[in-house]
Write a structure and sequence with these properties.
Helix 3 runs parallel beside helix 6 and helix 5 runs parallel beside helix 7 (130-142). The chain folds into two domains: 22-142, no CATH class; 148-218. The chain has a four-stranded mixed β-sheet. By secondary structure, it is mainly α. Helices cover 50% and strands 6% of the residues.
């Protein structure tokens, strides 16, 4: 974490300089700090003190603009909740940092919106355990916007099935997804992320999946926060 008397690179600075922003104070990850410093320097805006070495990764001006705007919005959000920042748990701190770091490498505008939500919602997720924070950080880094939307829209189902439903299946509890459809690819992605797992060992459950228990907290991070 950068102190009030150190620059991002660790060089001593005058105490009369502008204090670090909320985003700087919580961006303690080495990769996050380096990336933030460079992006800010390129943009020439108040974020200029934040970011050093991502120019090759952020080759597109459009991409840089998307990320700059997202970081400005995140900084505003963190400033609005500055009282919460003083009491962040290590798990919350990890989630915030990992979401910001993932944002810097994300080209999807929809995914950027989910990551912004993850930063804001992490501030209220006080009961997250350290191991849960490790898993959630990995998931929010790798999950696609389509996969996140699928979970939000379909978590009320008890099962996801990649085969046609039988007449005895309850359509309110089991979601049928064609393996050849776009949602079929999404289901495969969620399986690879460990968010969907086989429903059971019996033949009737072949092609059926249930949701991982971590999804409840994942959705707390990804959903639009209530006013």
């Amino acid at each position: 974490m950068v102190s009030d008397h150190l620059s991002v690179s660790g060089t001593a600075t005058s105490s009369h300089l502008t204090p670090p922003s909320a985003l700087e104070r919580v961006s303690g990850h080495t990769g996050t700090g380096a990336a933030l410093t460079l992006l800010g320097a390129l943009s020439g805006n108040p974020l200029a003190v934040l970011l050093p070495v991502l120019s090759n990764s952020l080759a597109s001006a459009r991409q840089r603009k998307r990320v700059e705007e997202a970081l400005r919005q995140i900084d505003t959000t963190l400033n609005e909740h500055s009282d919460v920042l003083h009491n962040l748990s290590d798990s919350q701190y990890k989630l915030v940092n990992e979401a910001i770091l993932a944002l810097l490498h994300t080209t999807s505008l929809e995914k950027i919106q989910y990551l912004r939500r993850a930063v804001r919602n992490s501030l209220a997720l006080a009961d997250v355990l350290p191991q849960e924070a490790v898993i959630l950080s990995r998931v929010i880094r790798d999950i696609s916007a389509d996969e996140a939307s699928f979970l939000i829209n379909n978590f009320h189902f008890e099962r996801v099935q990649l085969w046609p439903l039988s007449p005895k299946d309850d359509k309110d509890k089991v979601l049928a997804v064609s393996p050849e459809s776009p949602d079929g690819l999404v289901v495969s992605g969620l399986v690879s992320l460990g968010l969907l797992s086989g429903a059971g060992p019996i033949i009737e459950d072949m092609g059926r999946y249930t949701y991982s228990s971590i999804i409840a907290k994942l959705l707390v991070l990804l959903r639009e926060p209530r006013p």
